[in-house]
Design brief:
Length: 135
Amino acid sequence: MTEIRLAAINKVLLTGRLTRDAEVRYTPSGTPVAYFSVANNRKFRGRDGEWSEEATFVNAVTMGRGVEIFGDRLKKGAAVFLEGRLHTRTWQNEQGARRQGLEVIADRIQILDRPEESGEGSKDEPGGVEGELPF
């Protein structure tokens, strides 16, 4: 019997709205890192025929020069498109217990809100309708 080889694919495409303003921190070498959470809503019809909605909350992180350029637009409620990969993060909580969480490492972010919706700039500005973070 031949062994089946699986390709190692780790790709995430996600749209949603930020649940809070991005928290920007800096690595010891000075690289900016933005931490944020995205709510992704799904509507579906239940067994009773009624429409329901559920939200999935996804933690995400992105880093690099784009954080400083577009970081001020990563505000609560902003509609975003993320492209990246899943990553398991491990840490110790205040009681010393080891914890794990799954997050998206976003290599590409597009801000989907039109500038007039967020009260900023015009459509002709760099990063206008779909401001892409250059990572």
